[in-house]
Sequence to fold (597 residues):
Amino acid sequence: MSGQLAAATGLLVLATAVLAVAGAVAWRHHPAPSARLTAVLIWLTGAWCITYAGEIFATDLPLKLFFAQTEFFAKVAIPPVWLALVLRYTDRDRCLRGWTIPLATVVPVVTLALVWTNDFHGLMWKTVALHASSSYFSLAVERGPWFWANNVYSHGLIALGILILIREAFISTRLSRRQIPVVLIGIIAPVAGNVMYLTGFSPFEGLDLTVYAFLVSGPALLWGLLRSQFLDLVPVARAKVVESMADGFFVLSPNNRIVDVNAATLHLLKKAPGDVLGKPVTALLNMQLPPLLEAVNGHHAPLGELTLGEGESARTYETRVSPLQDRGGRTRGQVVLLSDITDKKRNEVSIEDTIRRKDIAYQQALIYSNELNLEIRARKSAEEALRGLSHKLEQIQEAERRHIARELHDEIGQALTGLRFVLESNRDKSPNLDEGMQIINDLIQQVHDLSLTLRPTVLDDLGLLPALLWYIERYSSQRGIVVNFKHRGVDRRFATDVETAVYRIVQEGLTNVSKYAKVDSVDVSVWTTENMLEVQIEDSGAGFDVARALTPPNSSGLVGMKERVNLLGGAFTIDSSPGEGTRLTAQLPLHRVASEV
Fold:
């Protein structure tokens, strides 16, 4: 292999690699409108390069002809794909609809068919021979009529795309003007090489300079993709931007006549272009705009407002007036922008009305809140007073029970005991006194039981634990129910009201067990924590509906226990349901502790 042939083939392989990378970069931008068409176009040029490398590398005629025919798959596809890319890039997609694409593929399809059947008609190449140069073998062909027809068609499509891009460069933004030359370089370089090859002005005998021009177009396209954001920012004509604006836009001459207007302005004025163009602006906008126009004086005017229409159909527009200056800085007219702010103004009014109503509601709520706070404080004060009164009544009640119990034990009990002694001393004189003695004994026992029920003296004399032990033993012997009593930290004296409350809770709780639970045993626990004295009574008996039981007048005993605990600042809970047993728990704060026993 000669050095020149190796260099020619190596350059084509390099061009193919660059174009493959450029196509991959373009495909990566697939959300962009023209990304995939760009990738296809680049890959087609790469396919042309690699197949042409195969053509110049082959040394026999059949193989060279095969590669030359294979090249036409890319050659016939590149022009229509190029034009489609330009139309998509310049936002002319409507030209690609309908029969455009099918018609554009007729010539390429016919060309491919003629290329592969050339032996039968010679429309593409009249003669094909192998030409030997000093460095390599090339094809020497005499081109047929359809070859030139296809070239005219292909170059026509490419030229049309170039003209569209050149026009776009003049009417688009500055950024697009920097992008479009990159694209033009990428396509004009191969076209120039192809023209030189077809006209015989190539400095390299037998080499098609078209594919070598891809060494220029490939890097140019890659640079455009990576640096000038070719696919990310497509060109948009300024005229199209103005025409598609939702805001009204019109241009005034120096004498304030309308010389240009967009569709949005015509819509808000409800007029045709002929009724607006050339007319004084004051005749169309009811003399509301001139103060703003006079304020321009070569500078941007402040924002203003313009109202069109009457009644409910009236619309409010925010107006912005800017001077239209030539390159010398002289004012040649004015540009007016109208933005519909009707909904914004209505929303502002609605918001202000809402704020006002909310402020009134807030003031009313504040007054109501103050009145409610006063009422709450009054109720709390009344509840505190009532709670204090209830506690005082409990204390008075317990004091009365204590007094009555002592009276029954000391006065009436002693009187009955004395009466029994007198009767016993006279039993020998009157044998009929036995029945009276029995009555006296029963009466003494009843007075004793009544005294203990009202308030056992052991509670006042010895404290809570002895009183509970005495009561539980007496309860078990009388009711036949086993009481499993557990205690911890209660072998000391507590405040009188605390001791009384715990004793009454145990007393009332065990009474309810004997009446309703229908059990043979019950668990009673009393213990102390750091600052609480706790009581728990639990059975596995019939249970009940707690909410119903606490509703007066169903259970005054439970309500009384709860009120007694609440008066001391404690907590009282009942866990029970029908058939599931009952657990009663009371927690009493230890505010005052007496000396240990």
Remarks:
- The radius of gyration is 56 Å.
- The chain is about 60% helix and 15% strand.
- The CA atoms of residues 408 and 447 lie 6 Å apart.
